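User: Show me an example of a complex going from sequences to structure tokens.

Assistant: Sure. Here are the input components:
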Amino acid sequence: MTSVTEATPGSNAQRERRRRILDATIALADSGGFDAVQMRAVADNADVALGTLYRYFPSKIHLLVTALGRQFERAEEQSRNRQVPGDTAHERVMYILGHTTTALQKQPELTEALTRAFMFADASVADEIHFVGMKLTAMITRAIDGTDENREPTEEDTAIVRVISDVWFTALMGWVTGRTQAEDVTKSVDVAVRLLLR
Amino acid sequence: MTSVTEATPGSNAQRERRRRILDATIALADSGGFDAVQMRAVADNADVALGTLYRYFPSKIHLLVTALGRQFERAEEQSRNRQVPGDTAHERVMYILGHTTTALQKQPELTEALTRAFMFADASVADEIHFVGMKLTAMITRAIDGTDENREPTEEDTAIVRVISDVWFTALMGWVTGRTQAEDVTKSVDVAVRLLLR
DNA sequence: TCCAAATCTAGAACGTGTTTCAATAATCAT
DNA sequence: ATGATTATTGAAACACGTTCTAGATTTGGA
């Protein structure tokens, strides 16, 4: 995967181009959502030719999911440095997901763009998707385990995290596609977490 | 909603056209998945003009999600007439979802087309989506309640059904997009059901 | 430094979802 | 039955993701 994690290869100019492309993508997504991220517009705003854009990212979906990965990486980094407050696993998980949800909902267009791309992604984007999944899993797992830094997550923890992620994603998808209200996202997750962490 | 449930309005000729369109959609989806459902091809196969197709269904997504609704309606009808075998709620839910999953996986192209459409759907397709959700909820709820036909589902039952649906859908989505194996779908659901129905 | 290979650019071109339009056909109220 | 309204048709046109091409530019090794 040409992930944002690896020391990005290529010359300086190439790393610069890549950064400009992802910046332009985020900016366009933030202003007008999925539809506003038009490949010609991205290329223009990033000052590269359309063909070059396609050399860096083989499709609009790759582009957006990679951008999503960059965002999640930053979010996970931030959350890693702070102690998660809350006395129970339920409280801690809701703290993290509630916060993240609220943050996402403050940039609805951007979230719509990135979520839609995630939904669209097929096997050719598996690596990028996996990267995002890892970040999310790490955040939730850390919240479940709480202060106990060294606790090895059990099988069951992993399973629970998976289910919570699924519920969160589905709820987010409902909101992004305009089928449910913003509050419903957190509410759905809360119900699921209550059922699972008891 | 111009649902498949309501006594479909319009003249005989119109009902016929509508049926031909949905039949052509299913046939094309079954043969080549989402990409094979091209609006021009649907119109040709259904013997209507492209403009007419768009008068009946305002977008490819509406078309596919309506088709999905018709399929689910049939599945739910069938399941309604049979007693769900199994001694525990877990067994019964897995029977229903396992069966449905297997059936879907026998028509991978069709399932890919319908699931992708479902993922794509925005607010303008809310009614059709809701219709599909109702059918699925009905099937799972019946499985949880088992033989006790008259048992009123509790709040908790409803919440559990929602979570199971989310997990099932996410797993199906992973399979449809080629990111996970066929068996993983049933496996994921089984793990979730075990966590929830204990 | 110089050459070959790789990369980048500008722009045309293609495919498919969607829109539009003028002409024709079907339906419905009187 | 007739005129008005509505539905259907066939075809053109548009938008945007994607592909392709031919020529410039940059890069990296001898």
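The lines above are the inputs; the final block is the predicted structure for all four components together. Chain A has nine helices and no strands.
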